[in-house]
Structure to design on (393 residues):
């Protein structure tokens, strides 16, 4: 399809990603030369009501918010030959999923700053009556500004929810439950989402935002992916998330407390909204209010280099200073690539990278929490290890 023109005015220049039902291209407006991202759903799938509803919902929800931290939608329509299309602002950078896959861990100051920007974007969406419902690393894009700072954009409002008092433009809110749609990504879904409650509100997005911070700071997801969708959702509903300090002792106690308060299973005791979450983040990490920039990190001054030599009296014996106490190394955050705790990302039918793991036939019973837990770090149950050893020649 490269070189094709969508609606006669957008030329497709480069394939960015593709899936079973569509693709995302880098494109250009042929009249003004503006670079854009163009998401296309192939014609054969444009007759599926649920797919069309999700695609249209994404455009409407993002357009209804129009915040600094929400991806901008410029155009939406149907091309008779190429199918449904959406024209999106072109972003340079990478999504948070790619960043974590490469580096595993993000420093406390930068993670807090990213969290503040995510929270501000969600607060703007909630004020417009839009609940995202699918916040995850693949839907948080880190834009590298010309001045070296990082600017956060929230992507993919395809399964967002319009609050009852703010109906979506053009009519009632459709229900997204059929083939070709997803109601969230279990590792980042709040307990009330996993339970299928109808009254999911902004507190579900607060939970998801807290899981992102947890993952950035700890170097591992708050909820392991083991056991497939059912196993993950069962753990979210039945088990408390381990306190961040238990997995990331290097994180300040004040910041860890904010993250933990966003991961309370009882939503009535959880941080109540995104604005409050941002305020508490800024209280715990005041420097997070500005965009992070780590292009240049100054070498800290060693105060011992600034001290003058003490005066000496030649008539007095020199008494050596007492030996300094041993230095105990502080706990260090994880380094290197992330272990393969979840499968590689793929591009969904709407062209968005998502993570999903089908239930494993070799895995434990999804409803048995004790047996699920042994898969959290790649361990295998004793029975499987014995079976594998018998098969070796």
């Amino acid at each position: 399809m490269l070189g094709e023109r969508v609606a006669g005015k957008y030329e497709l220049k480069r394939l960015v990603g593709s899936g079973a039902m569509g693709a995302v291209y880098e494109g250009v407006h042929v009249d003004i030369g503006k670079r854009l991202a163009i998401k296309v759903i192939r014609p054969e799938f444009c007759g599926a009501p649920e797919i069309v509803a999700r695609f249209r919902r994404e455009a409407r929800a993002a357009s209804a918010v129009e915040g600094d931290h929400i991806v901008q939608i410029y155009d939406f329509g149907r091309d008779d030959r190429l199918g449904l299309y959406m024209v999106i602002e072109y972003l340079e950078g990478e999504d948070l999923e790619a960043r974590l896959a490469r580096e595993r861990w993000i420093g406390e100051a930068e993670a807090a700053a990213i969290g503040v920007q995510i929270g501000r974007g969600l607060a703007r969406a909630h004020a417009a009556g839009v609940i995202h419902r699918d916040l995850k690393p693949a839907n948080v894009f880190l834009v590298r500004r010309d001045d070296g700072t990082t600017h956060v954009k929230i992507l993919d409002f395809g399964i967002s929810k319009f609050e009852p008092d703010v109906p979506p433009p053009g009519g009632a809110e459709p229900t997204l439950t059929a083939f070709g749609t997803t109601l969230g990504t279990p590792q980042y879904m709040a307990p009330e989402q996993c339970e299928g409650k109808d009254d999911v509100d902004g507190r579900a997005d607060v939970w998801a935002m807290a899981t992102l911070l947890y993952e950035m700071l700890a170097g591992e997801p708050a909820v392991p992916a083991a056991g497939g969708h059912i196993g993950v959702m069962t753990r979210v509903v039945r088990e408390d998330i381990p306190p961040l300090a238990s997995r990331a002792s290097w994180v300040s106690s004040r910041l860890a407390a904010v993250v933990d308060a966003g991961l309370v299973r009882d939503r009535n005791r959880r941080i109540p909204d995104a604005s409050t979450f941002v305020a508490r983040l800024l209280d715990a990490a005041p420097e997070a209010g500005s965009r992070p920039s780590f292009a240049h990190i100054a070498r800290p001054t060693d105060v011992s280099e600034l001290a003058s030599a003490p005066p000496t009296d030649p008539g007095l014996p020199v008494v050596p200073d007492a030996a300094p106490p041993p230095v105990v190394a502080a706990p260090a955050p994880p380094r290197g690539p992330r272990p393969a705790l979840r499968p590689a990302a793929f591009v969904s039918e709407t062209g968005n990278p998502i993570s999903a793991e089908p239930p494993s036939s070799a895995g434990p019973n999804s409803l048995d929490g004790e047996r699920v837990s042994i898969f959290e770090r790649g361990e295998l149950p004793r029975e499987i290890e014995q079976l594998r050893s018998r098969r070796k020649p």
